Structure formats: structure tokens, C-alpha cells
Amino acid sequence: MSHGCRTISTSAQPMKKGTIAVNAEAGYHQLGEFFERVAKLARVVNVTEIKLSGLNRPRNPIRAELVLATYMYRPVGSAPAPKPK
């Protein structure tokens, strides 16, 4: 099936994936605000894993365990990224 688009060429780009584990306890509204802020970041950030648990408390009734992933372009032959301190 043709959609009016044809591939002329493709090339694989070297990408470096970075992940961040986040564990938080919050209310429903606060968790929603967090997701909204992540969605508005200048860099693409995906929530790749999520686990929500209910807590028996009125102030912060949710425990969220998340893994966020982002990607960086790393040209072939470039110096390695600096190690986190």
C-alpha cells in the first residue's frame, strides 16, 4: 500500500540512552503536575517503567516508582560523555 511517501535513504545515528530511576510519594495532583513538567521538557523524556502503589495515608496517598529515559546524539569517534559525580 502506497501513502505517497518513498524512502530515499536511511542512516543509523549513534544514540546514547540515559535512564533515571525516580521513587516518590505524592498526592494525585502532585503526580499529575510531575508528568506535565516532564512532558514540557525541551529534551524528549519517556516514562519507560511505572509502578503505582496506594498508601494508607491522607497526605501522600501514592507511591510512584518510575524509570525515565532520554537519548543523546553521540557522533562516531566523539569523546565519551563525562562520568556523573
Topology overview:
Blueprint: E1 15-26, H1 28-39, E2 45-54, E3 62-73
Antiparallel strand pairs: 1-3, 2-3
Q: Would you kindly provide a brief summary of this structure?
A:
It is built from one helix and three strands; from the N terminus they run βαββ. It is mostly beta strands.
C-alpha-based Rg, rounded: 19 Å
Largest β-sheet summary = 3 strands, antiparallel
Low-pLDDT stretches: none
The helicity comes to: 10-25%
What's the CATH topology label of the domain at 15-73?
Answer: Alpha-Beta Plaits
Which structural class do you get from the secondary structure elements?
mainly beta
Strand order of the largest sheet: 1-3-2
Number of strands: 3
Mean pLDDT: 85
Number of continuous helical runs: 1
The second-level CATH architecture of the domain at 15-73 is: 2-Layer Sandwich
Coarse morphology: elongated
Q: Would you write up a description of this structure?
A:
This protein has 85 residues and is mainly beta. The protein is built from one helix and three strands. It has one helix at residues 28-39, and strands spanning 15-26, 45-54, 62-73. Strands 1-3-2 form a three-stranded antiparallel sheet. The radius of gyration is 19 Å and the shape is elongated.
Features:
single chain; 85 residues; mainly beta; Alpha-Beta Plaits; 3-stranded antiparallel beta sheet; 1 helix; 3 strands; elongated
